[in-house]
Amino acid sequence: MTDFNTLSVVELNDLKANLQEKYEEYKSKRLSLNMARGKPCPEQLDLSMGMLDTIKSDSSLISQEGIDCRNYGGIDGLVEAKELLAPLLEVSTDEIIIGGNSSLNMMHDTIFRAMFKGVPGGDQPWGHYPKIKFLCPSPGYDRHFSLCEFFGIEMIIVDMLKDGPNMDQVEQLVSEDETIKGIWCVPKYSNPEGVTYSDEVVDRLAKMETKAKDFRIFWDNAYAVHHLTDKPDQLKNILHACKEAGHPNRPFLFGSTSKISFPGSGVAVMGSSKENIQHTKKQLSAQTIGPDKINQLRHVLFFKDFEGLKDHMKKQADIIKPKFDKVLELFDSELEGKHIATWSKPNGGYFISLNTLDGTAKDIVALAAEAGVTLTGAGATFPYRKDPRDRNIRIAPTFPSLEELELAIQVLCVCIQLVSVEKLLKIKEVC
Ligand code: PMP
C-alpha cells in the first residue's frame, strides 16, 4: 500500500476529497457506536448466569469453616474463596484478602490507608509528606491516574516498552527521590498495550534499590487469565521475586473476577506478604464488619476451582477473539503500509493500543465522535489526560457486536486517514 508520506500535494488533495466523501457517507447513517470502555458483551455475561442458580432459598450457606455466610464476619474472606482465587494472584491462602466487588476500590483504600496511617517500613504516613509521587508507566490505565489525581499524588511518566516499563528510567528515579512511593503496573496484557512484563523487568522491579524505605509496587493483575491464544504469555511471580530480593513487603497485588463473572458483582482480591496482609487486616476491621460472603460462595459453587475458572475464560475467549481479529484485519487492510499508524497485537486482555501520527489523536477521536463512534478520550491513557505526543488511542473491541465493531473500525480508519492527510498537507505547505 502507498506510503502517505511519499504522496505529492496534488495526490494528497485528491485522497482528501475521496476520504471526505466516504466520511460524509458514514456520517449520514447517524451511527451510535460506543467503544469507550472495556466492558464484556452480553454474550460473555450470559456465560455466568448459572452462578445465580447456585444458591436457592433452601441452600445451606454454612462455609467450610462453619461460618453462616448470611451473617456478619469473615473480614478477609471465606477459606474456600481464598482457595479459588489465590492461584489468580499466585499467592498462598495466607497472603490474600478477599474484598468486595471491585479491585479498584481495594487500590483506592490501600492508598487511602497509606496516606493516613503509612505502610510497614515507613517512617510516617504518606500524607504527612508535603508531596508524594507515583511512577506511571504510560500509556496506562486511566483510572489509576484518576486515583493519583484524587489523592494529590504527583504522577511521573515512565515509557512503556515492549516488555514493560523502561527500567533504566524507573531505577534512576526511585534511587534518588524518597518521595516516590509507588509505581502502577498492569503486568499482564497491560491496559491498553497488551504488554506482559518480561522476567527481567519483574526481577529488576523486585531488586532495585529505592530511596523510599516504604516504596510499593501496585501490581494490578486485572487480566491474569484473560488469554486470547492457546499459548498464554507467562508472567514471573512478583511476590516470589521480591521475597528473594529481600523486599517481601514491596508488592501489593490486586485482581478481581469483574471480567470473569460480572463487572460490579464480582469478587476482588488483594495479595501481599504476610506482614502487609496482617497489617491491612487490622486496619480493615475499622472500615467494615466483613465483605459479601454470599457472593464469594456463589463464585466458589459456580467455578468449583481454579481449573473451572480457567475453562470459563476459554469460553469468553471464543466470544471475543473474533472481535480482536476483526479489528486487526481491518487495520491491516486499511492502514498497513501507509505509515500513518501502528497498533498492538495482544495475546490477551481487553484492548488494542493504536498510535497515530504525532499530534493527531485528539482530532481523530473528535472526528469519529461526530460520525457517531465514541472512543476512549484521546489522552486518557496518560497522567493528567495529556498524551505528550497526542497519538495514542485505546480500542476496546469486546462490547459491540461484530457487525457494529466492523462498522465502527471502518469509520475510525477513514478518520485516521483523513486527519493524517490533513496533517501531511499542513507539513508540506509549511515546507
Ligand atoms: N484494573 C484494570 C487494569 C482494569 O482494566 C480494570 C477494569 N477496566 C480494573 C482494574 C477495574 O477492576 P474492578 O472492576 O475489579 O474494580
Automatic annotation (TrEMBL):
The keyword Transferase applies. GO terms for molecular function: L-aspartate:2-oxoglutarate aminotransferase activity. Keywords: Aminotransferase, Coiled coil, Transferase. The keyword Transmembrane does not apply. It comes from the Bacteria. Residues 9-36 form a coiled coil. It comes from Terrilactibacillus tamarindi. This is Aminotransferase.
